[in-house]
Amino acid sequence: MITLYDIPAQVPGKSFSPNTFKARLAIAFKGLTFKTEYIEMPDIEARMKEIGAEPTTTKPDGSPKYTLPVIYDDATGKVVSDSLKIAEYLEVTYPDTPSLFPGGAHAPMHLFSDYFFPTVIKPAFFVFLSNIVFRFTPRGLENMRETREPIFKKTLEEVVPKGEAREAMLAATKAEFSKLAAMYAANGEPKAYFLGDVPSYADLIVVSFLIWIKLGFGEEHSDWKMISEKWDGGRWGKLLKVLEQFDVRT
Ligand SMILES: N[C@@H](CCC(=O)N[C@@H](CS)C(=O)NCC(=O)O)C(=O)O
């Protein structure tokens, strides 16, 4: 049994982090059974040290920073931090399950993993973040204020984009989604996936962010309907529909 460490929020289904969705979807895509342990943001470091997880990055002061997702697999005794490393671990450890790297396509997945957030999502990050940030648990929100407000040099309320600035951010992300849609379309229509005929980890990355965006806006919001139904002819809504079956909550 695999344990997935995730962050709780006040949203339907409790999970809301795009990075932890990547691991959640990858485990379910492989048909593996797992349970979730939810950890509040301010408790991540202590709990991860307790289970022997590696930090994934550094804090502004240079000290190690622990992030989720992390998994613990009791079949092997391994603890793995970082979404892409988790996908690699699952692929190697469970070779007889559906492949996240079909045909051994590891390099394209690493490239995609590096590219997707900074290029496609980041232009509208504050639009999406401000939709969801107030849905943290009270402790999570307090921690976000303590850790993020000094970095943003603004309160979380002041970070919420408005008016023309908001529209410009969404337009920039829309343009990047369109470039990605053209890459997908180069496989030939009506192929739905980044690698053409078969789903892969790249599609799970896109879907993880789409779930996060949808949770933030809410299903009925006109901006979410526009993104999922209108952007790139509804490609992203369709991709989500096919792959959201792997958003298994445990
Ligand atoms: N490179 C890491 C990034 C993970 C990450 O940034 N996780 C966020 C949640 S989306 C986190 O745990 N943040 C904790 C914090 O900022 O204290 C991965 O892909 O797993």
TrEMBL record:
This is GST N-terminal domain-containing protein. It comes from the Eukaryota. SUPFAM superfamilies: GST C-terminal domain-like (SSF47616), Thioredoxin-like (SSF52833). It comes from Schizopora paradoxa. InterPro entries: Glutathione-S-Trfase_C_sf, Glutathione_S-Trfase_N, GST_UstS-like_C, Thioredoxin-like_sf. Gene3D superfamilies: 1.20.1050.10, Glutaredoxin. Residues 7-98 form the GST N-terminal domain. Pfam families: GST_C_7, GST_N_2.
